[in-house]
Amino acid sequence: MQHDVVIVGGAFAGLAAATYLGRARRDVVVIDAGQPRNRFASASHGFLGFDGSAPRDILATARQQLATYPTVRVIDGEAVAAEATGGGFAFTLATGETISSHLAILAFGLRDRLDPIPGLWERWGKTVLHCPYCHGFEFSDRKLGVLWRTPMSAHQACLVAEWGPTTLFTNGADLDADAAAMLERRGVAVEPARLAEFVGDGPQMTAAIMEDGRDVPVDALYVSPYSTLGSPIAAELGATVEDGPLGEIVTTDAERKTTVPGLYAAGDIAHAPHSVSLAVADGATAALSVHRALVFG
């Protein structure tokens, strides 16, 4: 059986796309590996109507609502391989089952890589954060830090300073004169020494320990992790993958069409910046584009 659409990824972008296509009465299969990118966070903020809700609770509600549309099926599993066929695409699951469709939306999300500094990964999504809009308000007026990754980290530090006193940890990287002047104007402190570790009680953070033995108080640290695609199947299908400002992204146009005819991409894998609200909007955009393609060919 060849379905109208297969959606690879059942988090915010994928479920939003499935909802729109289900309401259009299209035959849709969602393949979900159950590893949403924001699963490390206890709460999601800024998403209208769900501010402060746990990400998995939002997704569970979305799934319940999606179940009311009889033409949509959700498979809990992983797409491990994919190929273009004469009339569309075929996706192979880890179980060996093959699911075929005329069109496809990739929404499998990203995997984040953090610098190998002790104390970072175990606090990811709690006090080591990526987005001040998503998690800044909760740390208002506390001691904030930004970890250098690229020259854009200086701009990030100036932005984070909106929420509280901020220190940019350059971890030994050199600042150019323009960046230093911008940080000074914004009142951002600069800590140039290399980092040894971040410490605190459990998921809480209290300080950065420098290699020279000093400790710098910090309650929350913002980082821009390098992100890679959560699945290799975009490349397997021949879609162009580029290096964006925060890591890998699948090249798409405004309608979320990839460079492969009939193949679309949505959510964090298709653009930056990243948030739940933007991912949901992206999924809806892809669904509308796909539906027009199904109607008009």
Structure description:
The protein has 297 residues and is of the alpha/beta class. It has two domains: 2-112 and 225-296, FAD/NAD(P)-binding domain; 115-222, 3-Layer(bba) Sandwich (FAD/NAD(P)-binding domain), CATH 3.50.50.60. It has seven helices and 19 strands. It has helices at residues 12-23, 55-66, 132-135, 152-160, 177-185, 233-236, 276-296; strands at 2-8, 28-32, 72-76, 79-85, 88-93, 98-106, 110-113, 128-129, 144-147, 166-169, 189-191, 195-199, 207-210, 215-217, 220-222, 226-229, 241-244, 247-250, 263-265. Strands 1, 2, 3, 4, 5, 6 and 19 form a seven-stranded mixed beta sheet that branches. Helix 1 packs parallel to helix 2 (55-66), helix 1 (12-23) runs parallel beside helix 7 and helix 4 (152-160) runs parallel beside helix 5. The longest helix is centred in the last third of the chain and has 21 residues, at 276-296.
